[in-house]
Amino acid sequence: MSRPVILITGGSRGIGAACAEQAARSGYDICFSYVSNPGAADLVKASCESHGAKVVTAKADVSSEDDVLAMFDTCEKELGVPVALVNNVGVLGQQGKLVDFTAERIAWVVDVNVTGALLCMREAARRMSTDRGGAGGSIVNVSSKASTLGSPFEYVDYAATKGAVDSATIGLAKELGPVGVRVNCVRPGPIHTDIHASGGEPNRIDRVAPAIPMGRGGEPAEVANMILWLSSDEASYVSGALIDVAGGR
Ligand code: NAP
């Protein structure tokens, strides 16, 4: 019997890599994307293959429609139509106040986090929807607890893009419910990944941990657990949900 196929954007590091590892252990074949670091992607690929998964990687900037189409086409050609999309890519810029942000920086964050996420949702919807010949499936968007907190003095632009991801989840779950596709969203709190270095504070979690009710940052695998559960048939009646994996924050 063929294995189900999962497509994970940004699978070469952090939460996406943890999703790929867990998907491999759960019996999926995997297509995952990266954008700048093929070496890191190769390491994740080899680790997933050691669990018996067939793995295809795709270099794709999710803010480029051409790249997104090519990524889905590669997945379909090499492995088959995915039953699950983990819409994971997200970027943030240097910490600061909105008054100091350039138009270029804001446009980049919006392009990747909103346009990119919507393009990936659209492609998954086109290929999975039963009214278009698909077999149904699941989309899990990776938002952030920042959508509810606003990230003042850090990255209000990033928080706003995650609010957009939350809204798209709610709307798309309603559009796609009748055609066999569940759409959900996971909102992580501070998780130990490289993303904090992009904001200029690699040890950010040490600073914010005292304000987290559980007193610590999360591990990528703790987020992946929820994403893989939402992707699975165990969550067969869950759609339109925004689930916080944020240590009670
Ligand atoms: P990360 O460690 O920075 O990894 C980002 C991944 O996305 C990498 O695989 C990277 O590929 C890829 N990527 C970056 N820009 C891309 C683009 N334009 N197109 C395609 N791929 C791109 O991130 P993370 O911390 O795991 O975060 C994953 C998701 O969780 C994001 O949506 C983030 O907003 C969200 N989140 C994270 C936290 C946290 O504390 N870590 C908290 C809340 C929400 P390369 O390695 O090739 O560059």
- Kindly state the percentage of residues in helix: 40-55%
Bound molecules: NADP nicotinamide-adenine-dinucleotide phosphate
CATH architecture: 3-Layer(aba) Sandwich
Number of helices: 9
How would you concisely characterize the structure shown here?
With 249 residues, this protein is α/β, with parallel strands linked by helices. It is 44% helix and 15% strand.
What can you tell me about this protein's structure?
Strands 3-2-1-4-5-6-7 form a seven-stranded parallel β-sheet, sandwiched between helices. It is α/β, with parallel strands linked by helices and 249 residues long. It contains nine helices and seven strands, in the order E-H-E-H-E-H-E-H-E-H-H-E-H-H-H-E. The model has no long low-confidence stretch (mean pLDDT 98). The protein has one domain: Rossmann fold. The protein has helices at residues 14-25, 38-49, 65-78, 103-128, 146-149, 156-176, 195-198, 204-208, 220-231; strands at 5-8, 29-34, 55-59, 84-87, 137-142, 181-188, 242-245. Helix 1 (14-25) packs parallel to helix 2 (38-49).
Task: Tell me the layout of helices and strands.
Blueprint: E1 5-8, H1 14-25, E2 29-34, H2 38-49, E3 55-59, H3 65-78, E4 84-87, H4 103-128, E5 137-142, H5 146-149, H6 156-176, E6 181-188, H7 195-198, H8 204-208, H9 220-231, E7 242-245
Parallel strand pairs: 1-2, 1-4, 2-3, 4-5, 5-6, 6-7
The chain binds NADP nicotinamide-adenine-dinucleotide phosphate.
Key structural traits:
alpha/beta; 44% helix; Rossmann fold; 249 residues; globular; 9 helices; single chain; 7 strands; seven-stranded parallel β-sheet; binds NADP nicotinamide-adenine-dinucleotide phosphate
